[in-house]
């Protein structure tokens, strides 16, 4: 597949910067709330809601999280953070990038969309999905 989704932290977001550790903490929180959902349903929902093992990688591309699938329907996702200079000012704009490597499955794409929406909602950011559509999770000003 080889596509990426981006969650941009904008001025109206809950926070303007993010680190890889904070993203890892959000993934842990996601696993925690999905396991509680499973407890309420009396079903091991956690293994279906988050079918990945998370490891931190460091290579020529920088630091990122590698989510390796634990189910045949899921292969892997890559999650990283970065920043760019704003177009109108010199302020850095931080983002989370979720990448579908070439060997990713449709299950990975669906889970990547789900995680991207979760991050964007928690951080009140601007989400650019894998299909180039944009979703706004922050309070926008009416002009």
What is the typical, i.e. mean, pLDDT?
89
Using the coordinates above, name the CATH class.
Alpha Beta
Biggest sheet overview: 7 strands, antiparallel
CATH architectural category:
2-Layer Sandwich
Bulk shape: globular
User: Any idea how many domains?
Assistant: 1
Annotated CATH homologous superfamily:
Rbstp2229 like protein
Taking strands numbered 1, 2, ... along the chain, how are they ordered across the largest sheet?
2-3-4-5-1-6-7
Poorly predicted runs are none
- Would you give the CATH topology? TATA-Binding Protein
Q: What's the total count of β strands?
A: 7
Secondary-structure content class: alpha+beta
Rg is 16 Å
Q: In DSSP terms, counting alpha (H) and pi (I) runs of 4 or more, how many helices?
A: 3
Kindly estimate the percentage of residues that lie in beta strands according to DSSP.
25-35%
Binned, the helix content reads 25-40%
Q: N- to C-terminal separation?
A: 38 Å
SSE succession: EHHEEEEHEE
Outline:
It holds the Pfam family DUF1885. This protein has 143 residues and is α+β, with helices and mostly antiparallel strands.
Explain the overall architecture:
By secondary structure, this protein is an alpha+beta fold. The chain has one domain: TATA-Binding Protein. The protein is 31% helix and 33% strand. The chain contains three helices and seven strands; from the N terminus they run βααββββαββ. The chain has helices at 20-41, 46-49, 106-123, and strands spanning 3-8, 52-59, 62-69, 76-85, 92-100, 126-128, 134-136. It has a seven-stranded antiparallel beta sheet with strand order 2-3-4-5-1-6-7, covered by helices on one side. It starts with a strand and ends in a 7-residue tail after the last strand. The relative contact order is 0.24. InterPro entries: DUF1885 (IPR015062), Rbstp2229-like_sf (IPR036294). This is DUF1885 family protein.
């Amino acid at each position: 597949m080889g596509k990426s989704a981006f969650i941009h932290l904008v001025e109206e977001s809950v926070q303007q910067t993010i680190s890889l550790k904070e993203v890892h903490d959000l993934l842990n929180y996601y696993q925690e709330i999905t396991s509680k959902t499973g407890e309420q349903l009396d079903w091991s929902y956690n293994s279906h809601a988050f079918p990945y093992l998370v490891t931190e990688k460091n290579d020529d591309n920088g630091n990122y999280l590698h989510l390796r699938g634990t189910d045949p329907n899921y292969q892997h996702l890559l999650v990283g953070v970065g920043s760019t200079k704003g177009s109108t000012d010199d302020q850095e704009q931080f983002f989370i990038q979720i990448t579908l490597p070439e060997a990713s499955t449709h299950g990975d794409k669906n889970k990547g969309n789900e995680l991207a929406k979760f991050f964007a909602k928690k951080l009140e950011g601007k989400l650019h999905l894998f299909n180039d559509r944009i979703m706004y999770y922050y309070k926008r000003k009416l002009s």
